[in-house]
Amino acid sequence: MTPDDVLAELTALQAGDVPTHGGATMAYVYDSGRADVDELAAAAQASFQWTNALDPTAFPSVARIENDLVGVAAALLGGGPGTVGTLTSGGTESCLLAVLAARERWRAAGGPGRARLLLPVTAHAAFRKAAHLFDLEVVDVPVDPVSCRADPAAVRTALDDRCALVVISAPSYPHGVLDPVGEIAGLAAAAGAGCHVDACIGGWVLPFLDDVPEPFDLSVPGVTSLSVDLHKYGYAPKGVSVLLTADPELRQAHWFATAGWPGYPVVNPTLAGTRPAGPMAAAWAVHRLLGAPGYRQLARDTRAATLALAAGAGALAGLRVVGTPVTTLVALAQDGPDGVDVLNLADEMTARGWLLQPQPPFAQSGGDLPATLHLTVTGATAGRVDALLADLADAARDAAALPRPVADPELVAAAAGIDPAALTVAEVDGLLELAGVGGGRLPERMAPVHALVAALPRPVAERLLAGVLDLVYRPAAVPR
Ligand SMILES: Cc1ncc(COP(=O)(O)O)c(C=O)c1O
């Protein structure tokens, strides 16, 4: 094939994707709305695409890029003289490494038994993955059911000498609210536990705003590490995040070195061996282009648009804004028993070309959290708030006329008796067929599927979710 034909094929493949640009996809992607940012990022990425950040002594350019970006992040986010950091592949990897470092430190200090990870239930799912991978026990801490912020009293009750790390969010992904960082970091420090601030999504916005209600960064006593993603509001392409640690010893605790094989000596600061340098170079270039003034302008414009969006959406009949959004995220919930079902609303918005992310209802002790619609506002959406609100009003009217999505009671009853661990892949395929997602093809209306996921016992739901992915990733027939 010719290169042009190959590229045409790739472009054709993308026709079925949600748009990465234009601001209508309000999850997964972060569009500054500035073509110069995208062009520079692409050029920088291309010039580093063959570089291997595995070895910064062979590629000193990579060390320079990493040191520059970590230095900028530390200066922006309250770092002190001992602050160091590592570039990772994304938010999840930053969170994983923060947990690993805390566990290692806790073990080195002689922590008894199996380490515990305290998670307000709104902490990102990446921390559950970390506990799974690194063998920590998750202690779920309920959040305040109205403000959706982590509850210091509940954290105090759950803290004990097995707690290696407490996680707080600045802000939380599901609702965009800021946890009480000062209070909880103080409690963690008093108990001898580490405290990680997950600022993956807010850390490149909050420092540029004037209306942040309280300090949230490494300057807060008790905070031991902080994550911030450059591939979110740093407007870099996918694959780059920063993990800051308050002291160099803690950073070493997530590094890995071995001379125990006959190959090259290995020192890995992150989970990967070979590390792509393209996203790092792109983040560096975008930072050089925008600088603090450019980021400040983007953050302020996007924040103003978010406030207008929240005010407009909250004024629509049957909808309310959850908690107090502090950055550029908004969560909408049904207002009152006769309000608009937000799972139906998500489907109606999809039909109008917007991707708003449905989040199912969540049961927790102390008061359940409602189903919500998550909206991530980026630079590109900022100029389209009026159009978004008009579509939202229209979609809310149509959603209100739809039947409320309910899980099929027979399926739920049947699921109650299932041992998810005993199900084979073929049996899961069969169950998914019954649930309307046979063959891994998602139905046009997802509300009933989300309602079902929420109604199933969590282990069964998790087995079925994995089953959907299993169906999506079936290898193509080998071309002859
Ligand atoms: C607060 C927070 N933490 C962690 C993550 C995980 O980041 P990633 O998807 O880059 O792995 C996200 C992603 O949205 C997030 O919002």
UniProtKB/TrEMBL annotation:
<dbReference type="InterPro" id="IPR015422">
    <property type="entry name" value="PyrdxlP-dep_Trfase_small"/>
</dbReference>
<protein>
    <submittedName>
        <fullName>Aspartate aminotransferase family protein</fullName>
    </submittedName>
</protein>
<keyword id="KW-0808">Transferase</keyword>
<keyword id="KW-0456">Lyase</keyword>
<dbReference type="InterPro" id="IPR002129">
    <property type="entry name" value="PyrdxlP-dep_de-COase"/>
</dbReference>
<dbReference type="GO" id="GO:0019752">
    <property type="term" value="P:carboxylic acid metabolic process"/>
</dbReference>
<dbReference type="Pfam" id="PF00282">
    <property type="entry name" value="Pyridoxal_deC"/>
</dbReference>
<dbReference type="InterPro" id="IPR015424">
    <property type="entry name" value="PyrdxlP-dep_Trfase"/>
</dbReference>
<keyword id="KW-0032">Aminotransferase</keyword>
<feature type="modified residue" description="N6-(pyridoxal phosphate)lysine">
    <location>
        <position position="232"/>
    </location>
</feature>
<dbReference type="GO" id="GO:0008483">
    <property type="term" value="F:transaminase activity"/>
</dbReference>
<comment type="similarity">
    <text>Belongs to the group II decarboxylase family. Sphingosine-1-phosphate lyase subfamily.</text>
</comment>
<dbReference type="InterPro" id="IPR015421">
    <property type="entry name" value="PyrdxlP-dep_Trfase_major"/>
</dbReference>
<dbReference type="InterPro" id="IPR050477">
    <property type="entry name" value="GrpII_AminoAcid_Decarb"/>
</dbReference>
<keyword id="KW-0663">Pyridoxal phosphate</keyword>
<dbReference type="GO" id="GO:0004058">
    <property type="term" value="F:aromatic-L-amino-acid decarboxylase activity"/>
</dbReference>
<dbReference type="GO" id="GO:0030170">
    <property type="term" value="F:pyridoxal phosphate binding"/>
</dbReference>
